[in-house]
Amino acid sequence: MKIFITGATGFLGQYLVREIALKHFDVKEIFILSRNSEFSKFSDLENVKLIKGDITNPQMIENNVDYNNIIENVDFIIHAAALYDVMASHSECYLQNVVGTQNTLRLIKNCKKLKAFFYVSTIAVGDEETYFLEEDHFPERKKFNDYYSETKYHAEKMVRDLKGLSDCKLPIRIIRPGIIIGDSVTGRMDKCDGPYYFMSVLKKHSLLLKTIAYLPLSFNPKTRLPIIPVDHCAQAMVALILREDFSLELKTYHLISSELPTIKEFLEDINQALCLKTQYIPVMKNPVHNSLLKLLGIPKELIPFMFSKLSYDKTRTIEDLPELKKSMYSDYKEKLFLYLA
Binning pLDDT at 50, 70 and 90, where does residue 166 land? Predict the structure, then answer.
């Protein structure tokens, strides 16, 4: 088996490569695309080969010999590369997420032996004004609160459009991870993102908060955080590859922990980790509190997620990945809050 992976040098990608390389199935070669020819974090893995290239370039792969090797011999392609930053500009997100996916799909069409294509999307394609996102449903959206969600939405649409072509005989799997958080064992996280903004802000102002009994905050206490540890996400993706049946049906998977905390519960757990007793009073969105969040360093792009009504269908996901039910917040939250240490 030969696998080509984009985004392998990213946070999830590094876990994914190691999970594939160390599993017990026969992977002859893992080709990873990297703009940095000096990337050395896989130097201990004999079957990992670095391919110099960039998803934003039309051919993607710089060296023609490498390019021909990929299109002639690769069995699986995993497109995990993306710009994940809710504060990034439209041009940055569009180049990485839309153009990058477009170029990957062009590569796929030229591959001679490709058996399956895995595209890493996101649950952020869901419409925040609805209540339930089914696995196979692709919502019709025209309004977006950040450019990351918008460009990933259009990128997934391109993948779905490819599958809709009458001559497409390629098994396509769309992976929609939840908010990826740190390692469930070590707590390791590579950047401040998503719920980590709240953890960092409350830690930074912990001395002040110890003097405040009540603090109004814009959030819906019933909104649940759709999170998954990075290692659980990588393990689930590799399990899907191991169990691939190569059916031509388009399949979508929601990779989210089976037990999710509400924002209220999450804030209470941060309090416990920081020995705080502040009670956070949920209030509706308003300019004053939105400005307060911005002043604290919490991006305004996160506010809609703090009021999301969405829950996520996992019917097929649990059928094909029953072990995902074991990914529970109560089991790994202690490690998650090591970020505050």
Answer: low
Q: Where are the beta strands (DSSP E) in 112-193?
A: 116-120, 132-133, 172-177, 179-181
How many residues in the chain? Answer: 341
pTM of the model: 0.94
Task: Answer whether residue 230 shows pLDDT above 80.
Answer: yes
Token pair listed for 324: 């995902």
pLDDT at 264: 94
DSSP H or E run through 55: none
Angular region, 262: left φ>0, alpha ψ -120 to 50, beta rest: beta
Q: What angle do CA 333, 338, 341 make, to 5 degrees?
A: 145
Which residues have CB under 8 Å from 317's CB, separation 6+?
135, 253, 254, 255, 324
What the chain holds in terms of domains, given with CATH numbers, is 2-180+226-258+312-324 (3.40.50.720), 184-224+260-309+328-340 (no CATH)
Report, as an integer, the average pLDDT of 228-249.
Answer: 94
Asked if 220 contacts 306 with a C-beta cutoff of 8 angstroms, the reply is yes
How far apart CA 13 and CA 9 sit, in angstroms, is 6
Helix (H, G, I), strand (E, B) or coil at 282: strand
Beta-bridged to residue 120, according to DSSP, are: 175
| CA geometry: angle 16, 20, 25, nearest 5 deg | 160
pLDDT of residue 24: 61
Identity at 94, one-letter amino acid code: Y
Least confident of 36-40, 162-166, 239-243, 261-265: 162-166
- Please give the average per-residue pLDDT across 181-202, as a whole number: 88
Tokens of 159: 């993948």
Of the CA atoms within 13 Å of residue 276, those in its CB half-sphere come to: 26
